[in-house]
């Protein structure tokens, strides 16, 4: 017997002892976190297989699904993230990593359409570069949990157009950086920009994840929203959205990104003088007022604990 065989004291594989046998085999992993993670994954995965009792054909279908998911991935398409999104895992990981002190704005998924180098614009600028869609004014304040304004906050905003497409999905059709911009707050913490009302849209559904949604009797749509990443010195970065509560998909977001606190009010303003002053063309516009509250680095969380990562930053 080699020492390798002798040390593997989990015994031979049996249906009943499968978890213990595999976990014992992994016990020599040098990385403690990997060892712990694999212990849990083995336990839960074997439990699921024992409950489901898949046929060989069913297990092979699952392998083929994962294979197709991998083949769908390239530099601009990440089908595994989409899979994580529609299974609710992305939102769960987001929730675990973004427990906030009470009063702080809640986070939600980043999504695949953020662009790192969007231009910084003067406060009040119009991020709609092609003049298409229903005019919208968005404004509010960036505050701390005491309600005080945060100066020098960077607000990175991006959204789909009124047909439900991001600029990066329509290269050559929409101008580059259409409906994207970065704004910096002054001492009053106020932000303000002009845009157009976004529309609901489907997540990319021409791959295995779209097929899975179909098989589950689910639609691929996300309700209309604006994306934000807000950063300020001394505060935790906030990745979030605001949503249109009147959207037909508000109760059934394909990726589970909606939270009650992220519902904004989209008010139709029929006021030609105000519309004119904002250089809006139709005598009316949508107005959205929404404040964001940032958590201080190292602040306690609503579950009473302190984010260790943040406190050592
Ligand atoms: C988005 O909102 O941009 C998005 C989020 C998750 C999956 C696909 C799109
Ligand atoms: Fe989006």
From TrEMBL:
<keyword id="KW-0479">Metal-binding</keyword>
<dbReference type="Pfam" id="PF04444">
    <property type="entry name" value="Dioxygenase_N"/>
</dbReference>
<dbReference type="InterPro" id="IPR050770">
    <property type="entry name" value="Intradiol_RC_Dioxygenase"/>
</dbReference>
<comment type="similarity">
    <text>Belongs to the intradiol ring-cleavage dioxygenase family.</text>
</comment>
<protein>
    <submittedName>
        <fullName>6-chlorohydroxyquinol-1,2-dioxygenase</fullName>
    </submittedName>
</protein>
<dbReference type="InterPro" id="IPR007535">
    <property type="entry name" value="Catechol_dOase_N"/>
</dbReference>
<keyword id="KW-0223">Dioxygenase</keyword>
<keyword id="KW-0560">Oxidoreductase</keyword>
<dbReference type="InterPro" id="IPR039390">
    <property type="entry name" value="1_2-HQD/HQD"/>
</dbReference>
<dbReference type="Pfam" id="PF00775">
    <property type="entry name" value="Dioxygenase_C"/>
</dbReference>
<keyword id="KW-0408">Iron</keyword>
<dbReference type="InterPro" id="IPR015889">
    <property type="entry name" value="Intradiol_dOase_core"/>
</dbReference>
<feature type="domain" description="Intradiol ring-cleavage dioxygenases">
    <location>
        <begin position="138"/>
        <end position="166"/>
    </location>
</feature>
<dbReference type="InterPro" id="IPR000627">
    <property type="entry name" value="Intradiol_dOase_C"/>
</dbReference>
<dbReference type="GO" id="GO:0018576">
    <property type="term" value="F:catechol 1,2-dioxygenase activity"/>
</dbReference>
<dbReference type="GO" id="GO:0009712">
    <property type="term" value="P:catechol-containing compound metabolic process"/>
</dbReference>
<dbReference type="GO" id="GO:0008199">
    <property type="term" value="F:ferric iron binding"/>
</dbReference>
């Amino acid at each position: 017997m080699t020492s390798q065989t002798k040390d593997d004291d989990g015994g031979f594989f049996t249906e009943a002892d499968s978890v213990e046998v595999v976990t014992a085999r992994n016990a020599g992993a040098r990385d403690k976190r990997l060892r712990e993670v694999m212990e849990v994954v083995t336990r839960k995965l074997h439990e699921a297989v024992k409950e489901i009792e898949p046929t060989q054909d069913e297990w092979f279908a699952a392998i083929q699904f994962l294979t197709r998911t991998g083949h769908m991935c390239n530099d601009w398409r990440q089908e595994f993230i989409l899979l994580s999104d529609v299974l609710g895992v992305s939102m769960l990981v987001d929730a675990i990593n973004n427990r906030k002190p009470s009063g702080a704005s809640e986070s939600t998924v980043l999504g695949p359409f953020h662009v790192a180098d969007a231009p910084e614009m003067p406060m009040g600028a119009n991020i709609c570069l092609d003049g298409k869609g229903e005019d919208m004014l968005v404004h509010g304040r960036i505050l701390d949990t005491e309600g005080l304004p945060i100066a020098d906050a960077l607000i990175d905003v991006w959204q789909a157009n009124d047909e439900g497409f991001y600029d990066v999905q329509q290269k050559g059709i929409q101008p580059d950086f259409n409906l994207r911009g970065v704004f910096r707050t002054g001492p009053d913490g106020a932000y303000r920009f002009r845009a157009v009302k976004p529309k609901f849209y489907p997540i990319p559904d021409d791959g295995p994840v779209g097929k899975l949604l179909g098989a589950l009797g689910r639609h691929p749509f996300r309700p209309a929203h604006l994306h934000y990443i807000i950063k300020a010195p001394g505060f935790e970065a906030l990745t979030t959205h605001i949503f249109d509560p009147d959207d037909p998909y508000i109760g059934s977001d394909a990726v589970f990104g909606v939270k009650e606190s992220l519902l904004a009010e989209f008010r139709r303003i029929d006021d030609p003088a105000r519309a004119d002053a904002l250089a809006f063309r139709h005598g009316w516009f949508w107005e959205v007022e929404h404040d964001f509250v940032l958590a201080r680095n190292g602040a306690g969380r609503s579950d009473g604990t302190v984010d260790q990562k943040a406190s050592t930053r």
